[in-house]
Amino acid sequence: MDITRWPSLEGIENVAHEGYLVKGLGMRSKKRYFVLDGVSLQYFADDSLAEMKGELCIKDAQLSIFSGTTAKGYYFEILVPQNNPSEPGTMRRYTVNATTLEERAKWCLCLAQN
């Protein structure tokens, strides 16, 4: 896979995939630039990577793919295990969407391989 290396990605070693996805649903949704690096999925305000908005450890994460499409894109969910001793097995759900079926397939394939 050919990955464009931005100068600010120099500290990130194993970029498997990167690009824009919309995080969330409805009024709370935000376009974010995502970078998959090993078991870390980081998301930024934009592709300058100047402002990291969050980071997910996707080790032991699960994917859930929505069938069909919506007017805004191709949705999938990343379910991330939470370290909560009082509620073992708890998963946090992150809903994201891509603009094309092919882009969603690329993300899901890359996430499943990490």
Order of helices and strands: EEEEEEEH
Mean pLDDT equals 83
Largest beta-sheet characterization: 7 strands, antiparallel
Look at the helices and sheets and give the structural class.
Answer: mainly beta
- Outline: globular
Strand order, sheet with most strands: 4-3-2-1-7-6-5
Instruction: For the record, give the distance between the C-alpha atoms at the N and C termini, rounded to a whole number.
Output: 15 Å
Q: Please give the radius of gyration in angstroms.
A: 14 Å
| Number of DSSP strand runs | 7
Q: Can you count the helices?
A: 1
What brief labels describe this structure?
42% strand; 1 helix; 7 strands; single chain; globular; 11% helix; 7-stranded antiparallel β-sheet; mainly beta
Could you walk me through the main structural features you see in this protein, from its secondary elements to its overall organization?
It is a single chain. The protein is mainly β. Helices cover 11% and strands 42% of the residues. It is built from one helix and seven strands; from the N terminus they run E-E-E-E-E-E-E-H. The chain has a seven-stranded antiparallel β-sheet with strand order 4-3-2-1-7-6-5. Strand 5 (62-65) and strand 6 form a beta hairpin. The longest helix is centred in the last third of the chain and has 13 residues, at 101-113. The protein is globular. The model is unreliable at 1-10 (pLDDT under 50).
